[in-house]
Amino acid sequence: MVDVQPKPSGARFVALGMLLSKLGGLVREMILARFFGVGPHADVFRSAMRAPNALQNLLGEQTLSAAFIPFYSRLLAEGRREEAGRFAGAVFGLLVAVVSLLVIVGVVLAPVIVSVLAAGFAGDAVEVAAGQRTVDRHALTVQAVRLVFPMTGFLVLSAWALGVLNSHRRFLLPYLSPLVWNASIVTALLWSAQGADLSAGSLGTDSPALDRWLLAACGGALVGGFLQFAVQLPLVLRLTRGLRISLSRQVEGVADALRAVGPALAGRGIVQLSIYVDMFLASWLADGALAAIGYAAMLINLPLAAFGMSVAAAELPELASAESERASQAISERIDRALRQSVLALAPSVAGYLVFGVLVSGLLFRGGGFTLEANLLVYAVLCAYTLGLLASATSRLLQNVFFALHDTRTPARIAGVRLAASALLGAAMMFALDEFAVREVFGLSGITQDLRLGAVGLGLAASGGAWCELALLRRALRRQLPAWRLPLRHIVGRLGLALALAVPALILWVLISSAPLILQALVVLPLYAGSYLGWAWWRRFPELRLWHSRLGR
């Protein structure tokens, strides 16, 4: 019998791998910001990476985790490694066939895909001819999409390898492998720009060098996708026995796995649709909107993944176990404990981004093409999305509660409502705010780049949608768990505490505001973080023990 029980250190390996992968992504974003700033080329890169990533996200880790890992792990647990190898090979063969076809379609139909997903780029050629615009984003995005679309196939196969390795309790390598992808993009970009002058304003937004660097980064993404799969393959081949690549649906478990794909795709589809609605809307805004949203999203996803999604994912098995015992009170208690644990970490993230977000984004991205004006725009967008951070994290947990209660329809239906509300509100707000220029709102002078605040409208709409989703999930969950209450007073209290503890750091920031930006950030941000953690330790917050227990497993 093969031991497939989780090793005690598995959680630590997953956390370490995810943390390092996120940091690798952050380094990539920092370098991209220095090259492309917040302008048309940054918009093109975001759009080009979004288009093929639809395929990756639909067929990638989460879908394969639902459809592949349970069946493969069961065969391993029964000691049937030969059958498990044949099952893994059949799934691999079917994936190769599907993604190969979709990649060919994506490359051939790249102009159509860009016209649909970034419809606002369609008129760029006319504006370039009239001298109203310097970059034809549509034509450049088509070139970039054709370069990166094949990358998606390798990333889907990388997700298959992750499923195999996780089933064998090998966690670190698959979660570290995205570092290779990020490194490949950075290497290609730096290699193509050897000896270039990246000082602010030296290139403008229409330099042929920017086109060349952009396509080099996309080529690096393609190579990185292959390498991300390739680094996992030797260990996969060593662990699997009887791996026989085929297209057969008659192999044991394949039919069941294919049936499980449908519900997983439906859930992922709503998430992807939400992402692409934002992309479609942002394409109609002034240059830099998509780029600003991308930088802000990177910062939002750091605490959301580390402190929100991680807690929700860890609680799902426990919630499901409690439900099987018909212990509604146990579920309510676990929800409350998990919420308090995530709020302890997310409250200072919310307060920190709202008060010190300009320092955070400046420390990470300022330099080269990422100017003061770009810094202020990203800060404004970051604040807009931060308003919904607590709601998004809480909703993730409540969605898992519904999954534990074997109810997948309610969270999917409510997610659809959120999508519609965010899209309608965003369409109304983005055009209104796009009338305002960053330089005018913040009183800047000597600025040549015309950045506008339309992306802030999309961020505010997304936050409004997040709170709408939370309210609907809360009401629906109360019907199944009447005894449960959302601890609003606790959430507001922790957020108020975080804002109050930001005051000393804010005062110090004012006093040293004439110092270099990096010095301001390295003094003010640690003071704020230390004040909050010190207070939590002094007051012996019980949530600290929960975090210590989780990270120590």
Write the layout of secondary structure elements.
Blueprint: H1 10-36, H2 40-59, H3 61-67, H4 69-77, H5 81-108, H6 110-117, H7 124-129, H8 137-167, H9 172-176, H10 178-192, H11 208-230, H12 233-239, H13 254-282, H14 289-324, H15 328-365, H16 372-386, H17 389-404, H18 409-433, H19 438-441, H20 454-480, H21 488-511, H22 517-538, H23 542-552
Walk me through the structure:
- This protein has 553 residues and is mainly alpha-helical.
- Helices cover 78% and strands 0% of the residues.
- Helix 15 runs parallel beside helix 21, helix 15 packs antiparallel against helix 22 and helix 17 runs parallel beside helix 20.
- The radius of gyration is 24 Å and the shape is globular.
Q: Approximately what portion of the residues adopt beta-strand conformation?
A: under 5%
**Quick one: overall form?**
globular
Which stretches are poorly predicted, pLDDT < 50 over at least 5 residues? 1-10
- Helical stretch count? 23
Secondary structure: helix percent? over 70%
SSE-based structural type: mainly alpha
Order of helices and strands: HHHHHHHHHHHHHHHHHHHHHHH
How far is it from the N-terminal to the C-terminal residue, by CA?
A: 25 Å
* Largest sheet features: none
Gyration radius over CA: 24 Å
Rounded average pLDDT:
82
The protein's oligomeric status is single chain
Q: Quick one: how many beta strands?
A: 0
Could you give a short description of this structure?
By secondary structure, this protein is mainly α. Helix content is 78%, strand content 0%.
